[in-house]
Amino acid sequence: MREKTRVQKGELQKMKPLVVEGVVKRYGDKTAVGGIGFEVEEGEIYGLLGANGAGKTTTMRMVLGLILPDAGSIRYFGKEYGKEQLRMLGYLPEERGMYPKIKVSDQIVYLGQLRGMTRRDAEQSLRRWLDRFDIAEYYDKKVEELSKGNQQKIQFIAAVVHRPRILILDEAFSGLDPVNVELLKTTVKELRDDGTSILFSTHRMEHVEELCRNITIMHRSRPVVQGPIKQIKARLPQERVVLVGEGTIRGLEAIPGVTEVVQREQEGYELRINRPEVAQRVLAHAVAQGPVRKFELMEPTLNEIFIRTVGERHE
Amino acid sequence: MNSFRTVMSFTIRSKLRSRSFIVTTVILVVLAIVAANVPALIDRISSGGGATKVGYVPGEQDAVIQGLQSYFAKQEKPKVELVPVAASGSPDDALKQAIADKKIRGYLSFRDNPDIGFPDVTYSSKKLLDSDTAESLKAALQSVKTDQAVRDAKLTEAQLAKLFAEVRLDSVQIGDSADGKTEAQQGTTIGLTYAILILLFMSVMVTGQLIATEITAEKSSRVMEIIVTSVSPLKQMFGKVVGVFVVGLFQLVLLVGAAVVNLNLSQNRSALASLGIDFSTVDPMMIVYAVLFYLAGFFLFAMLFAAVGSIVSRTEDLGQAVMPITMLSLAGFYIAIFGLTHPDSPFIAVCSFIPFFSPFIMFLRIGLADPAWWEVIVSIAILIASVLGIGWLSAKIYRTGVLMYGKRPTIKELAKAMKAFKV
What we know:
- The structure holds two protein chains of two kinds.
- By secondary structure, chain A is α/β, with parallel strands linked by helices.
- Helix content of chain A is 38%, strand content 27%.
- Chain A has two domains: 2-233, 3-Layer(aba) Sandwich (Rossmann fold); 237-299, Alpha-Beta Plaits.
- Chain A is built from eleven helices and 13 strands.
- In chain A, the strands form three sheets. A six-stranded mixed beta sheet of chain A has the order 5-6-7-3-8-9, sandwiched between helices. A four-stranded antiparallel beta sheet of chain A has the order 11-12-10-13, with helices on one face. In chain A, strands 2-1-4 form a three-stranded antiparallel beta sheet, covered by helices on one side.
- Chain B folds into two domains: 52-155, Periplasmic binding protein-like II (D-Maltodextrin-Binding Protein, domain 2, 3-Layer(aba) Sandwich), CATH 3.40.190; 181-418, no CATH class.
- Chain B contains 16 helices and four strands.
- Chain B has helices spanning 3-17, 19-48, 62-74, 91-100, 131-153, 157-164, 183-220, 223-228, 233-263, 266-274, 284-311, 315-341, 346-351, 358-368, 373-401, 411-418, and strands at 52-56, 80-84, 106-111, 120-125.
- In chain B, strands 2-1-3-4 form a four-stranded mixed beta sheet, with helices on both faces.
């Protein structure tokens, strides 16, 4: 009986598109990544956060097989890194780059072929993607002739043209205008819904909140916060209160437990409190002065969590 | 599809389509055509210029003038044409006037020299270093003088024939194997060796630089990150090297083809023949060796260039980084040029075994010095072994280098980083 469960568990493990376990990378006596582990499910976007130099890119490069880890293991659908795995990976590097003087079609087809597509397949896939982004006329253009935003789209196509099962997006939306960010975000979500497993890194917390279910925050080469965003948020106390009354509310600073009061630009106040119970006292205080239109106990934003976890450890 | 072939054909196609490549190739082919026609052109220009007009004052040394005229008349393309200049007053003034009027280029004046029974002749011309005309005149005068002297000696026809029979000196190179090379063959061999050395050197430098530039450009444009995650660096590097090799070969074939076709035009053929070069005497083994050493030399240097290209992150830094390789091939080339005149020196013999020099120098020795067969085999074996060794090392460096950005790593850093990869 026990034997059987173990086998089943093993098979379950095997099915996971990407499993990273205890991965360590050292350069000389400097540790670039000090023991990171996470799992990415099928159809999931996994967020990898961290300040500059925290080890995100090194982690991604190890996942891509560009660098061998000194310790730990990385498994793709239960298998070690190999030629087969190389082909199901898609990569959008942080530092963007294409061949400037070569036609879009030529280089995307080339990259597709390198990842095992036939020329015909790659051409078709490219045309579909260009249509999808509404830039079909760039098929025969050289990359250097395109605007920066369109170059980014081409770069994105280069990462997905071969329908990767594991997609690695390093700072996917940096340097794009809001319209294009929205476009790419929708596309990434579609890919996720098609079952692609996506490892996603960014500095923009609102994207993470929108896209990811699970995250790892890295700091100085180590994972410091890890898990589903909901749980991470729940673990932290709710310390922010938004309060809007009919008129001015006086004496909020005087309530014990309130650490900061900020008059908001439009209307009302934003308060910081040091204990959740204080919120009720704030409400009572406000109601005593007149009708309250809005009272909200805000859950911490990822931005706050990030700054707190990373900032605290700076001390 | 095999990714090595994908990389290779992509490299070839994008190179062949690039405007700079097309322009360079056209320029090179035009240069080759011009160069091939140079001997004939020079021939035509110098003969087309016609004879130099040389003035003389009639009535002075008529016998000599007559002799000269009949001497030049017998020549097919006389370099000198004698023009009488009538002198009303002082002959000198009249002659100088004729030069000023551009009727003649120079003139002859005579002074009796009773010692040899022939006048001393002065050729005056405004042009500096008109040695060509002076030489022709001297030969002509010598002939006239000999004629006169012989006529005075009253020799028989047979004696005359003996006297004027040309001396023959043939120089033959002695080899262990073959019958040796005749003078024409030697001239051809030296010319050919020289030409192939230059081609090899140029081709190694140009294509090598091309490889390094391509790789650095891929790195600096960051396209490298995508490439290395799609295909193993080893395949990518060799695909690139072979791709550029094919492109370089194509260029070379065009170049050599244009030159050979033009050299075989009849007017060039005769011009070359007059220089003692005849391509029908070329030993086919020379061509086989040329190809062999070209291949080995190309890959040896190309691999080094690829490794260096992979270390550098910015194209601006590349020139400095490839300097040692450039020096190495320059050294090989110049030693070979030195060897053209001293193919037997022990220094050359030693250098013909040193891998980076041997493509130039062993080829030179084969062409000019007839080395022992085992020397050739040892040299080629060393060369091939080092191509493999350098290839392996370059692949390792490449694997490490392509992902290193920022400042150029020191050898120590590189060696350390290289341990982190298995190729």
